[in-house]
Design a protein that fits this description.
The protein has a 3-stranded antiparallel sheet with strand order 1-2-5. It has a two-stranded antiparallel sheet with strand order 3-4. By secondary structure, it is mainly alpha-helical.
Length: 192
Amino acid sequence: MHSSPRPGGATTRSSPRRSGLVFGCRSCALQRRDVDLEQRTIKVRRSADKKGRINRPKSEAGRRIVPIPEPLVEILRERLTDVDTDPKSYVWSTSGGPLRIEQVYKAWGRLLGYAGIERQLRWHGLRAYYATCHASRGTEPNALMKIMGHEDPRTTFAIYARIHREDVGAMIAAADAVAGMTKPAAPAEAAE
């Protein structure tokens, strides 16, 4: 599987499209103690703002447990070998502190360029892709709402899981090109 470097030693193989986390706010604040590889879960307990300050999620629903898909377990296990053993160590880090969101966005732009993606896709769009894939595969709405960290299912389904067919195709192409993975569903299937 192809991988290329990202800030903090992360690789493009650790695809957020498979975990539903937005790398920016939530994953930047992810600490070793939040990852349970045996239970295949991540506890979202904090987020990082644009200045790198750690905060609580915006709402109580934002504090949640997110499932780790099987393909990401070994990738996270490998990543954690590079992280200090202190439970409060950040999984994605520069100089011991959390990554700043600007670092993530710069890396995303470089990865899109590296993958030959001409259209500028927002990193946050991968979160919408995740919700759309779950909705199109029949994930129970309340379960998806909880995984996404929303208090109201309308947020999940009106904002995140309603993407135009061509946008889903572009997100799939970008995620696959950057992550070097096989696309999980055809755009027509994901948009229905």
